[in-house]
Amino acid sequence: MPNLLTIFRVIFLPFFIYLVLQPSQISRMIAFAVFVFASLTDLLDGYLARRLNQETEFGKFLDPLADKCLVLGAFIVFVFLSEQIQVWMVLCILGRDIMITSFRYLAIYQGLSLQTSRLAKVKTAFQMFSIIIILISFVVLTVPEYNLINQQYHRALEAGLSHWDIAGSNVQRFLHGQYDNFLFCLSSFLPYYLMILTTIITLGSLLRYLFTNYRLLQGPIPVIRPRGEKTGGRGSGRGGLTA
């Protein structure tokens, strides 16, 4: 059952992407509901795996992979829907996941476990929180209203301003009450700052992983430093790790 819920989370992703890309507020509402339901299955499958004593190596491999697919799928879609979400932000998140997945495979190759930290859980929680808030901004505004925000960013970028300048200007307008629509004004800068914070926390999580698991780089590495190969007088890579 836990693995089945995890697989469902992957299956939901194409439906979520299709719905959120539709120029219809109703479709985006359904997409929001699909994402929330998929996120809840992440909590449920872990609980069931522990409760029913059904934790398996396949489940441990599939669960984080499904999470990454869901999160990255949402962020990539946001790049096409919102001028506030920049490609470099999503590339940082993607790069971090690729590196951590590589480290996970390296740990399996060396017969070790990857040490995790609380920051990784904070990163995942904040990513989910950011996605939900951004999706809410798609839901509370009509498609034409959100297009107005995109047009504002597009025109300002063409005039030579940066995303930081545009978002900062919208914050000032919000703080001084210079708006007709509260939710419209809030949506004109909140997704940008959420993505900035998400990217910073994600990169911080990567640095924490590298610092905690740097010894994996001293052990055997496929192709580069296979098992049994001597490394700098330390004996085999695995011997260096246990030391």
Layout: helices, strands, pairs:
Blueprint: H1 2-21, H2 25-51, H3 57-81, H4 87-110, H5 118-140, H6 143-158, H7 163-175, H8 182-186, H9 190-212, H10 237-242
Helix pairs in contact: 1-2, 1-3, 2-5, 3-4, 3-5, 4-9, 5-9
Could you please describe the fold and organization of this structure?
- 75% of the residues lie in helices and 0% in strands.
- It is mainly α and 243 residues long.
- The protein has one domain: Four Helix Bundle (Hemerythrin (Met), subunit A) (Up-down Bundle), CATH 1.20.120.
- Helix 1 packs antiparallel against helix 2.
- The relative contact order is 0.11.
| CATH class category name | Mainly Alpha
Helix content: over 70%
Give the rounded overall mean pLDDT.
84
What is the N-to-C succession of helices and strands? Answer: HHHHHHHHHH
Number of helices: 10
Class by SSE composition: mainly alpha
User: In percent terms, what proportion of residues is strand?
Assistant: under 5%
Short key terms for the protein model shown above:
75% helix, mainly alpha, 243 residues, Four Helix Bundle (Hemerythrin (Met), subunit A), 0% strand
